[in-house]
Design a protein that fits this description.
The complex is a heterodimer of chains A (about 350) and B (about 180). Chain A has about 350 residues and is an alpha/beta fold. Chain A is built from 14 helices and 14 strands. Chain A has two domains: about 220 residues, Rossmann fold (3-Layer(aba) Sandwich), CATH 3.40.50; about 110 residues, Rossmann fold (3-Layer(aba) Sandwich), CATH 3.40.50. In chain A, the strands form three sheets. In chain A, strands 3-2-4-5-7-6-12 form a seven-stranded mixed sheet, sandwiched between helices. In chain A, strands 9-11-10-13-14 form a five-stranded mixed sheet, with helices on both faces. Chain B has about 180 residues and is an alpha/beta fold. Chain B has a single domain, classed as Pyruvate-ferredoxin oxidoreductase, PFOR, domain III (Pyruvate-ferredoxin Oxidoreductase, domain 3). Chain B has six helices and six strands; from the N terminus they run E-H-E-E-E-H-E-E-H-H-H-H. In chain B, helix 1 crosses helix 5 and helix 5 runs antiparallel to helix 6. The chains are: A alpha/beta (about 350), B alpha/beta (about 180). Chains A and B meet through helix 9, strand 8, helix 11 and helix 14 of A and helix 1 and strand 2 of B.
């Protein structure tokens, strides 16, 4: 029998089963169930839980712990993630693998506490200073949270890069049936040859650093990061095509909004409108090829990008499709969420 | 089969746990389900609601615009959601706290004197379980046996309260 789990709790449990043994964080709605769960669960598996004094402290604890080779994570929501941006930039430059969760709430500013997707730019384009990216997932439901989180640490360590789970308040609070994977044996994990874990001494000392003061060295390092991102794009891009085979109108959305879009697809098909949905699962790397191929299909007349923001992912959709077909936008904001009926109304009014 | 339910009332009336009972029953029965609670500062003493979708197939949208069933535990909830119910749908009204009648004529309505029946069952806190009984009967999605198994499991640590909850469930189921 499956278990009924809240998104936030399922993410926490999947992280532990995926090898997470340390959590550093600071409370903020709507993700508090993650630290709450971690505070007792990590204790059971011999891990470390610290409620830090701030988000700035949390992210730098991650920098330190993961720099020393630990599997550690933090979670927060929009304003808290903003506070972490300096640390994330350092971590990306120093190539420290770690996992971050952002259960997005309405912004800008302190905004509200209801679901939103206004942090897409921040998550996928860098967010802090300098040229960098993280791997960003946009899970659509609790099971996908579990599946992606379970392997997030492996992925982060494979490329020495942070992995961010970009959810929203709805995803954190929703309860759904899930199947949990078995516990990974952390004692069998390979030792990291670069980590500052005290084993490198003298001439073999290891250094984790984000300061490259000589222009040539910094440029070479950035070039190396670019190559890494290209490799990730080649190997790790994920997306889902939903009834797009004969679709004339291709809806596109990520996360929970894609679920609402799928219901809209069914309702539109009942009305005789050939609709489908293309859903990026990795938001970075963005599934540009899948979008271009879809745009090139003769059957496709237009895209409708749906977001809980003023329109952020739509820029990637326009870039990826080379604007071969019109890309329209339908969004709600401020913590309000569209219904499938709202989407159907928008599309039938346009048609 | 797809059963979309909105449950609403005051914080503290057991609105969220009522929804969770239905969600747990779904898992018990091998069905797909989403349980989406309202969350926020308004929850204590203010209004509280949740959306539950039970289905044979994976649930797409957890957001419900037009529920098949509305369970209104207090007056503001009935005002807020009455007009959203699908034509032909069902409204369960907690008549202990709502003296008004449903104005719609295109929906089925059941008035449940839940708070009084809860007292009759021997535990005034079981009003939501009375309503769960009424829901189980009206929706026909779950057998009463499955619901009772869920109740037993959920109160496993407080076995003393199980008999009153069973009685409350039966009172609602047999209305």
């Amino acid at each position: 029998m499956k278990e009924l789990m809240k998104g936030n709790e399922a993410i926490a449990e999947a992280a532990i089963r995926g090898g997470c043994r340390a959590f550093f964080g600071y409370p903020i709605t709507p993700q508090n169930e993650i630290p709450e769960y971690m505070s007792w669960r990590l204790f059971e598996v011999g891990g470390t839980f610290v409620q830090a004094e701030s988000e700035v402290a949390s992210i730098n604890m991650i920098y330190g712990a993961c720099g020393a080779g630990a599997r550690a994570m933090t979670s927060s929501s929009s304003p808290g993630i903003s506070l972490m941006q300096e640390g994330i930039s350092y971590i990306c430059c120093a190539e420290i693998p770690c996992v971050l969760v952002n259960m997005v709430r309405g912004g800008p500013g302190l905004g509200g506490i209801q679901p939103a997707q206004g942090d897409y730019f921040q998550a996928t384009k860098g967010g802090g200073h300098g040229d960098y990216h993280m791997i960003v997932f946009g899970p659509q439901g609790v099971q996908e949270c579990v599946d992606l989180m379970y392997n997030a640490f492996d992925l982060a360590e494979k490329y020495r890069i942070p992995v961010m789970m970009l959810g929203d308040g709805m995803l954190g609070q929703i309860m759904e049936p899930v199947e949990l994977p078995p516990m990974k044996d952390v004692s069998k994990l390979e030792k990291k040859a670069w980590a500052t874990d005290g084993t490198g001494v003298g001439k073999n000392r290891r250094i984790v650093n984000s300061l490259l003061i000589e222009p040539d060295k910094l440029e070479a390092h950035i070039k190396h990061l670019e190559e890494k991102y290209a490799e990730i794009a080649k190997n790790e891009t994920l997306y889902e095509e939903y009834m797009t085979d004969d679709a004339e109108i291709v809806l596109t959305a990520y996360g929970t909004v894609a679920r609402i879009g799928k219901s809209a697809v069914h309702m539109l098909r009942e009305k005789g409108i050939k609709a489908g949905l293309l859903r990026p699962i990795t938001l970075y790397p963005f599934p540009s090829d899948a979008f271009l191929k879809t745009a090139q299909k003769d059957s496709v007349k237009k895209f409708v990008c749906m977001e809980l923001s003023s329109g952020q992912m739509i820029e990637d959709v326009k870039l990826a499709t080379h604007m071969l077909k019109p890309v329209e936008f339908f969004g709600r904001n401020g913590g309000n969420v569209m219904t499938p009926e709202d989407i159907v109304d928008f599309i039938t009014k346009e048609a | 089969m797809e059963n979309k339910i909105i449950i609403a009332g005051f914080g503290g009336q057991g609105v969220q746990s009522l929804g969770m009972f239905i969600a747990f029953a779904s898992i018990h029965d091998g069905k797909e389900v989403t349980f989406l609670p309202s969350y926020g500062p308004e929850m204590r003493g203010g209004t509280s609601n949740c959306s539950v979708v039970v289905s044979d197939k994976p649930v797409a949208s957890p957001i419900i615009a037009h529920p098949d069933m509305l369970i209104a535990m207090n007056k503001p909830s009935l005002y807020k959601f009455e007009n959203t119910v699908k034509p032909g749908g069902t409204i369960i009204v907690n008549s202990s706290l709502i003296e008004d009648k449903v104005k719609r004529t295109d929906v089925k309505v059941l008035y449940v004197d839940a708070n009084r029946l809860a007292v009759e069952a021997g535990n005034s806190r079981t009003a939501n379980i009375v309503v769960l009984g009424a829901y189980t009967k009206l929706s026909g999605v779950f057998t009463p046996e499955i619901m009772k198994a869920v109740i037993e499991k959920k109160f496993a640590k407080k076995p003393k309260v199980i008999p009153a909850n069973f009685t409350a469930f039966d009172l609602g189921y047999n209305l």
